[in-house]
Amino acid sequence: MTTDIKTLVKILIGVAWLDGKIQPEERRHLHQVAKEKGVADDLEIQPLLHELRAVKPEECYQWLRDYLGDRPTSETCQTLIESISALIYSDGTVANEEAKLLSRLQLIDSTDASEPFYSKTLSIIRKLYQRWLAEF
Description:
globular, 7 helices, mainly alpha
């Protein structure tokens, strides 16, 4: 099991918490992803997955930075975008808090956002959420 897989699952859990609670459809999706990725029984993932504690937006930001690193590959960016998209589609709604947080991702420390892949990924995620907001 790699750290990247655990970090990706933590990001997804964090994104689901952005509106203050995990929706039933999101919960099912998160449990399925954690099981498929082999981290459902991980001691670090379990408390998050079973909602024993809420995830703060700042934690989600840090996990995104950890996952993307200084020079993310296009594959890493694509995996992140696809994973977040699947979570979004799981409940068919996007909370304002989720859209705001992802919009703010572009404003993370300019030294972190100087990498083109990082900026491009965050821009794509923001646009995806804005499109969803426009539909609802």
